[in-house]
Amino acid sequence: xxxxxxxxxxxxxxxxxxxxxxxxxxxxxxxxxxxxxxxxxxxxxxxxxxxxxxxxxxxxxxxxxxxxxxxxxxxxxxxxxxxxxxxxxxxxxxxxxxxxxxxxxxxxxxxxxxxxxxxxxxxxxxxxxxxxxxxxxxxxxxxxxxxxxxxxxxxxxxxxxxxxxxxxxxxxxxxxxxxxxxxxxxxxxxxxxxxxxxxxxxxxxxxxxxxxxxxxxxxxxxxxxxxxxxxxxxxxxxxxxxxxxxxxxxxxxxxxxxxxxxxxxxxxxxxxxxxxxxxxxxxxxxxxxxxxxxxxxxxxxxxxxxxxxxxxxxxxxxxxxxxxxxxxxxxxxxxxxxxxxxxxxxxxxxxxxxxxxxxxxxxxxxxxxxxxxxxxxxxxxxxxxxxxxxxxxxxxxxxxxxxxxxxxxxxxxxxxxxxxxxxxxxxxxxxxxxxxxxxxxxxxxxxxxxxxxxxxxxxxxxxxxxxxxxxxx
Length: 473
Known about the structure:
It is a single chain. By secondary structure, the chain is an alpha/beta fold. The chain has helices at residues 13-25, 65-73, 91-100, 126-132, 147-153, 193-208, 274-304, 336-339, 365-373, 387-390, 449-466; strands spanning 40-46, 75-81, 84-85, 136-142, 156-161, 171-174, 215-220, 311-317, 340-341, 343-346, 354-361, 400-404, 408-412, 416-421, 426-431. Helix 6 (193-208) packs parallel to helix 7 (274-304).
């Protein structure tokens, strides 16, 4: 397990002492490292992009040539998970975990009815830590974690969406010297959000690349989150009649998973039809392909400026999405299509063309970028770096935990997954190797009684370790 940095046995004490001594004695150590030798950081975050919605990662019907190039240039973690959510807006806690490196129940007051992210008391946040170490930090796009957390994280910001969706009253610009007057309504800006945010990032990068100061650019797209609209050029990119309906499609989920009629689930009527799902997939894929083209523009700008080779690019999404699988549309569930997201690292210090199927978490990104940039990992960060996995020196988690409010709890190993529905005393057990689409529930099969007991024990262990508030109820 590498989640808790205080417990991970990644290297022997002897080896660690030798490495530390060599680092201190070497003339090029961090203390004497020139600013222009530090890697730039470009973080690209999408919204609701499931782990297979990249062509080279299993999405045979979607075209993502620029993201595919990042896969070829870097290292991909194919089994990357969002730890969960205490809110129907799953993206909010996911982003809070990414920006703090802290576990799900450490970024929320369990008995707070508002379920607000508790980032104000967490220091330093991810971009804030890089800012404190000489980086020019810039943020654009969907933040969703409060103005105070943004302003202490970033040196500059443009076209910021502080709300969760397209909220015209909560966006704007940020400059420290104009803090009291910097926030303008995002609704005053016309155009598609993908272009708005990509153009803002390009504007920053053009300026930043003229300076040797290392930069940290946080670009958070709202695509492919609904409502799904694309520029006219992309509107016919996919013929819905030719798209394949997912093999685990159902007209409706067989039981109420806890939020059966939440907003995401009533975007289409029950029962869902194959035609409706094809239509949604055509728009979903078009939004991602449009986004992919803008990723290409950004990478091209870095290459043109001569900064690509010194830029660490991290591409991820905050979680996945169902879109018809298991009869669901949203992400308020514990199936892999909704809790797994793409995670790609490309750039200095990252092996090219490698893929790891270790079980890892999204909020391990913070510590990973610190290690790749030569920065210390703050004590507040709980999730460990993925660099040892890249180097072949460590494995991922033996099991991972997932939660959704107090409705669902999940534990998954490479072999099995247990989902527990707390309000209705129901369980599901899946063999993830034989049944990766989670179509055959084994929980009532007597042959799996021992497996169920072992998975229940793993789940309880995680709940105790993470201080799950559900145990107090």
